[in-house]
Amino acid sequence: QAKSDGRNTFCFYNSDMSHQARDRLLLEQALREAIASNGLSLNFQPKVQLETGEVFASEVLVRWNHLTQGFISPSVFIPIAERSGLIADLGRWVMEETCRYLAEIKQSGLTILPVAINLSVHELEGSGFAKHLMKYVNDYDLEPSLFEFEVTETGLISREEMVIESLKQLREAGFRVALDDFGTGYSSLSYLRKLPLTTLKIDRAFVSDITDDKVAASIVRTVITLAESLGLEVIAEGVETKEQQSILLKLGCTKAQGYFFYKPLDSLEFRKLINH
Ligand code: C2E
Ligand code: MG
Ligand code: MG
Ligand code: MG
Description:
Radius of gyration: 21 Å
Number of strands: 10
Helix content: 40-55%
Bound molecules: ligand C2E, magnesium ion
Oligomer: single chain
């Protein structure tokens, strides 16, 4: 009895694994095609002044509408892109498409706001990354100060030296650098001090707990104080309610993103919002 159970479990596990592996391979192949043939698109989530809701920038978020499976979340396909090496092509596509969009706005004489682009640590590997980004900026006749790059804490720590060097090059080229999802990783204060950052983004997890959890509130207060003493800007992610807005204001936060203000918008909606 036990033996046959074991064998069944083993067989089930085995075929399940191969299904998973096959599904991932199919997704990877489809993603490769989507990158090559404009199957991706960009959304823009407004970044606002917390008090007034005034839009001052946006975060670029990649979207993939799979031919048969419909919308697939970046939290599913970004890891696939990272594991398969497709992330470099995907990142280039996002950067160029963002530049194209900004150049188009500039040419029509409309208001052009800064953008934040998410980067995987994998993209920071290898030298000359900043130069490569500058090429797009120059080709589309834009200014590097229009761009902020968001990197997450978790990715950074494992490749400390290489990453710090790449981030320094980004700053020297005139780009801004934000630490995304701050508070969810394990970076120490001494590590934080070594990173050439302009901005800390307080993770949504702290924001969502802030209304009924005193500890979450004091963590947020501490992060704001820390940012100030390091000379960094601070922005709260995932603000969903009026209550969270008012507590964040009381804690000294001045900038935010979140569904309470705006969900991510497609490029047309975003342009309408800015130039109404
Ligand atoms: P992230 O950079 O931390 O982006 C914030 C995520 O939270 C986005 O999810 C956004 O749609 C969502 N969000 C914004 N406001 C709210 C809110 O009020 N409530 C809730 N529940 N969610 C909110 P999304 O678009 O699914 O992206 C997930 C992650 O995928 C991003 O997290 C980022 O790490 C990654 N990602 C997205 N686009 C790119 C890209 O172009 N390149 C790379 N390397 N990664 C990307
Ligand atoms: Mg981000
Ligand atoms: Mg985030
Ligand atoms: Mg995230």
